[in-house]
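Intended use. Records such as the Cytochrome aa3 subunit 2 entry shown here are meant for training and evaluating sequence-to-structure methods. They are not intended to support clinical decisions.
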Amino acid sequence: MHLHKFEKLWLIVGSGALVVFLLIIGINAFAMGHTPPSDNSTLDPKQVDQTAPFDQPGLKKIGENEYEAVIVAQAFTFNTGGDLKIPKGAKVHFKVTSKDVVHGFQIPKTNVNMMITPGHVNTLTHTFNEAGNYLILCNEYCGVGHQAMGVTIEVTP
């Protein structure tokens, strides 16, 4: 079959662009660890209150300027076990699950955005480099009180 020289050129350019695109995606996903938030571990959503670490939700210091925030999403609240107050520059490992329905977990103006499904544990790490108040919002409609579902993280200077 005969191909025109411009057809050959476009096939070469298109194939090359596809290879470059797949290489970039592969390097980002595997070598640099840029993957979606995980939900590799599961639990019984009816037993969340008896399952560690969700039996004691809250913010715990786990290292030098490093914290773990264990949060339970349930109809129309985030159970954080108290105030979420951290210093500027702190790295926070969020560990979140839901007891009842699908909820969202989003912190506007950051890259924190997860879908919280009952029975799954989602984890995500974020470093807060600017002081201020950050609002955690539910961005998945979860019922009639959805609009009131939110909690604030205070990042101190």
